[in-house]
Amino acid sequence: MVTTQTGTLFLNPDRNLALELVRATEAAAIRAVPFIGKGDKNGADGAAVDAMRKFLGTVDFDGVVVIGEGEKDKAPMLFNGEHVGTGNGPACDIAVDPIDGTSLTAAGRQNALSMIAVADRGSMLDASTVFYMRKIVTGAEGRGVVDIRKPIGENIRALAKAKGKPVGEIVVAVLDRPRHAEFIEEIRATGAGTRLMLDGDVAGGINAAMYGTRIDMCAGIGGSPEGVATACAIKALGGEIQAILYPKTDEETQKGLDAGLLFDHVYDADTLVRSDNTFFVATGVTDGGLVRGVRRLGPIIRTESIVLRSHSGTIRRVEADHLAEKWLDA
Questions:
Q1: Of 69, 216, 220, 330, which one has the greatest count of Cβ atoms within 10 A?
Q2: What's the predicted TM-score (pTM) here?
Q3: Rounded to whole angstroms, how far apart are CA atoms 115 and 52?
Q4: Measured distance CA(55)–CA(131) in Å, rounded
């Protein structure tokens, strides 16, 4: 922050930015509602993208999409390298997913949400050349305790000891994918339980790091972009995240090397996102364990959002009522 003749200029994202960002995730979530359960995931995503882009354009910041949904020629998606915001205010890296869980939305299932993560410019790891990474996420009890390089059974037992609870009460969230079949069996062989997710390992990671949830750990192979976005939230929650890039082809490995990425290297929260001033904002599209979905209550549309900020270590829940008539053909 510096002082000029015209007043105070914020060079880093400040707390007011979070309330502006939540307007964008609320808009994206509301616009996705007509598509819930209709089987049209592309229609849902397109409507959410358009709404998020429109609202981000009104925010006083200079944002660059480091983690988006594709390249410029795949518009109308928010593409990697796109500039958003008015161009005035703090320079930021942003990760966006107008709907994390398009398939969930299309099927009418739970846990779809709209999310934005923000950090200081140049601080987010650009892992776009390698789509997958192995991840393990826990709450604060897992710091200095879990190690992604060790078998999952050892990590479960170590976390149970650190949390002072029986292994049989540990619950591990895992994406329900064929690649995880053996991994899931290893978890269950310890006596721990699993929470299988159809999609949305960002929410799974956040729930693993928050107090008062039923998930103790989130682990397995998931998207690299989601890993970086999750790290922004974990820095606010004081939890633990570790990740190792997981290329599927030699070509992908070479692209990663050319981009300066490290393999057989454990990335943590501070190397996934180097900034200590991160924001994570999410609004529920459908009901889930992290936030409730959009609800129509007579003339009102009600949204629930979560806002996390690492600088202050705060978790805020924002429930907002929107006059429905303002959203008709808006």
A1: 216
A2: 0.89
A3: 10
A4: 28
